[in-house]
Amino acid sequence: MSPSLDNRAPEAEIDAMAPETTVLRFSLIVPAFNEERYLPRLLDSVEAARGAYTRGAAAVEVILADNASTDRTAEVASTRGCRVVRVLKRSIAATRNAGARSALGPVLAFVDADSQVHPETFNAVDEALATGRYVGGASGVTMERWSMGIRATYLLILPMVYLTGMDTGVVFCRREDFERVGGYDEQRLFAEDVEFLSCLKRLGRSRGQRLARLTAAKAVASTRKFDEHGDWHYFSMLARVGVSLGRGRLQDRVESYWYRPSR
């Protein structure tokens, strides 16, 4: 991390360089644990987005950060041309950070292995960063299926997105800014993505930038947690988290939901 920060926003011209001046532009980092089932679907969508990218498919590298998978996740990724980074520590933050450390592109993007990216993802990120107004941001998501319970959950979260400007989906920023905020907090077992965007938001504010929401290029989010626990489970889960917090057993609840999935 740099000991002194330049508070000026990066010049828009730097991000709008002609394709021939930059071979590699994006490093797309995919943290994964036992994702052999969903990973091919994501990689199909990434290939479509790379094919639509105006700088060319070669300007995007895909890094699979394999978080101690016991299935064929790494093999599937390698076969599809991804660079595989193995991470033994069972932590989503540590996994994302390990992928970022191996990245070669000046722009980092992160997406979950069970998601699907929009075909215009890389073009939309480029357009946002080229304005110089944004420190980074996220694509936002739509769900792969809808029900009353899923829609109610979505609507519960939406006001916080509007209030904070922080969204989910494909999260992106310049690599230098990722390093300036210290990446993802590896002490956090959950909500590390919220904390990261909060830090990025503060950095942007210091130089007159904000977070972007790419609502025209939303990723498709998996509903497998709803499939596994029920379409209304989020509400009861929040209540159980509250009880666990009061009893000092929050870590057990977090690990059972996020780190001991049935796959």
Describe the structure in your own words:
With 263 residues, the chain is of the alpha/beta class. The chain has a single domain (12-259), classed as Alpha-Beta Complex (Spore Coat Polysaccharide Biosynthesis Protein SpsA, Chain A), CATH 3.90.550.10. The strands form two sheets. The chain has a seven-stranded mixed sheet, sandwiched between helices. A two-stranded parallel sheet has the order 6-9. The protein contains eleven helices and nine strands. The longest helix has 17 residues, at 148-164. Helices cover 43% and strands 16% of the residues. It has helices at residues 12-15, 39-52, 73-79, 92-101, 121-130, 148-164, 175-180, 192-205, 224-229, 233-246, 250-259, and strands at residues 26-32, 60-66, 83-86, 107-110, 134-138, 141-143, 171-174, 210-213, 219-221. Strand 1, helix 2 and strand 2 (60-66) form a beta-alpha-beta unit. The radius of gyration is 18 Å and the shape is globular. The N and C termini lie far apart (37 Å). Residues 1-20 have low confidence and may be disordered.
